[in-house]
Amino acid sequence: MYKEARNIADEFSRITREVPGSIKFYLDEKNICDKAISDIRHFAEFNKTDRTTDRKLIRTLREYSKRRREADDNIKILKPLAEFIDNNSVALNRLDQLRGEMKKMAQYVESDRVYKPRILEELFEGR
Q1: Are 72 and 30 in contact (CB under 8 A)?
Q2: What is the pLDDT of residues 51-95, one digit of tens each?
Q3: Which of 29, 65, 111, 112 could cross-link 71 (Cys pair, CB 3.0–4.6 Å)?
Q4: Binning pLDDT at 50, 70 and 90, where does residue 39 land?
Q5: How many domains does one find in the chain?
Q6: Kindly report the CA angle at 97 between 92 and 99, in degrees rounded to 5?
Q7: Looking at residue 127, what is its pLDDT?
Q8: Does any domain span residue 111?
Q9: For residues 23 and 57, what is the distance between their CA atoms, to the nearest angstrom?
Q10: Domain span at 22
Q11: Is residue 59 part of a domain?
Q12: φ, ψ (nearest 5 deg) of residue 100
């Protein structure tokens, strides 16, 4: 049971450290897609194109629109967790401390322990 608890605590801690960077990544991705879509729209507005170019523009627009939607969806999903992380930094720091304590205790429990007798040394002789 303690191994499962440690794994869950470790995984949750990892996620809380990665979420802010992930949101920044998706915000950057969304921004790039917005600029690319704007480039496509302006190209179409200011240039005469043939059917081949039109198809290429539509394909490119579709690709950037999908990428933008995926980035926006990820932002929407991760934002509540990011807000939770920001609002609970004290608790998350305590969780990291607990993870350290759990790791230390698990190493102790899993190690080869030896008892050194205090009074009845002869009881342990030869063992």
Answers
A1: yes
A2: 999 999 999 999 999 999 999 999 999 999 999 999 998 998 898
A3: 29
A4: very high
A5: 1
A6: 90
A7: 64
A8: no
A9: 29
A10: 2-105
A11: yes
A12: -65, -40
